[in-house]
Specification:
Two copies of one chain form a homodimer.
Chain A: H1 3-31, H2 38-45, H3 49-55, H4 61-68, H5 71-80, H6 87-104, H7 108-117, H8 119-126, H9 129-141, H10 150-174, H11 180-193
Helix pairs in contact in A: 1-2, 1-7, 2-3, 4-8, 5-6, 5-9, 6-10, 6-11, 7-8, 9-10, 10-11
Chain A binds a DNA duplex through helix 1 and helix 3.
DNA sequence: ATCCTAGTGGCAGAGACTGCCATTGTCAAC
DNA sequence: GTTGACAATGGCAGTCTCTGCCACTAGGAT
């Protein structure tokens, strides 16, 4: 099998996946998360309901994909920071970088709008957090090889930036800020003042 | 209507509620969160499935009750701290206090065990976080009346202790520590070192 | 004894999700 | 171009969650 054919398949799958996701978000925005059924989404995307579940494990799963997409890049951003940089600076730079990517995505506002209006959608979004935390925690753990209470520290260091990111993005959305970096900087400046 | 009869009614309701919850947690521990159906729980608690849903909005809802119970007390603990105390100290004292209460509950270990083993259960547990955050954020907002970016700050101050609490409790459970205060103190000491 | 009301159970039905099997398409070797 | 494997899809049946509705019952108030 040639390399291109394999990639072609993968590309086509991604196409279907995107079609489903886009259709779903649009329907959520138009009709509300709760009133939209999986059948609606499948029909709008031109696939069978059965196929929907082959691409997404649940209806709520759709709400997390916006963030999960940047999972590797967040971990990578953390790993890429210089080794002697303080944890605080690592978090700050990584969050700033990812926040900008998230804010740049055309449908980010739609996703947040849905999550804001529907508690069920927001919960579904949060359902991805354990997975996300684990991912980030592993990235931090590599910087902590000889630290006391490695895992406790890693988990805390994973939870903080995710909380900061979440707070920043929601504030950015609700207040119609132009530059999300500014909001994120504010969050970290507040974080820094905590001990002072 | 006399005062006592109303209280009696409430007491009876709480009895049913506890019966359902206890039965559910026991079943979860024994058979796993996913394999237990609502019918199982209802039968084990001696009520109809229909009644189950009058006490808990969903099967997953059961997983959050352990924490939600302390919702008001956490907010109250925050409000009770002296007004000139730093945010950091407010968080520290409040979390320590609540952590001790949570750790003292006889079924806390069971709940964490279930949440640890089943991703679905953990997600259901996290589903209560928005509600919880909102609650804590309101408590902090009262301390911030004249602060810039009130709500951004309040949300961050709500997210941090909840993250700290979550991390501390899980670590305490997994490492079989005797005193959860020590673990919580460690978390906050790590938090304090962040800017230093 | 008789209302009145809150709590309950049963029933029907929608929607989420899964396992299974048949069908279709796609690529590769012939 | 035909064929043969293999992945993706669709349809179907069935389970489970959750809700609206209505009938029933128990306990307190009158």
């Amino acid at each position: 099998m040639t390399d291109s054919s394999g990639k072609l398949q993968a590309r086509k799958q991604q196409l279907v996946r995107d079609a489903i996701w886009d259709a779903a978000i649009d329907l959520f925005v138009a009709n509300g998360f709760d009133s939209v059924t999986v059948d609606d989404i499948a029909q709008s995307a031109g696939v069978s309901p059965r196929t929907f579940f082959r691409y997404f494990s649940s209806k709520g799963d759709l709400m997390g994909q916006g963030i999960v997409t940047y999972r590797e890049q967040l971990a990578e951003a953390i790993r890429a920071r210089p080794r002697r940089e303080s944890h605080f600076e690592v978090m700050r730079h990584s969050v700033l970088q990812i926040a900008e990517m998230v804010a740049g995505h055309p449908r980010t506002r739609s996703v947040i709008a849905v999550a804001t209006k529907s508690p069920g959608a927001r919960e579904a979004q949060l359902a991805h957090r354990p997975q996300l935390e684990e991912f980030v925690a592993r990235a931090f753990a590599q910087r902590l090889r000889n630290s006391r209470q490695n895992d406790l520290r890693a988990r805390l260091l994973a939870g903080l930036p995710l909380t900061a990111l979440d707070v920043a993005i929601r504030y950015w959305y609700e207040h119609g800020e132009e530059d999300i970096r500014k909001t994120a900087e504010n969050v970290f400046s507040m974080l820094g003042e905590l001990t002072g």
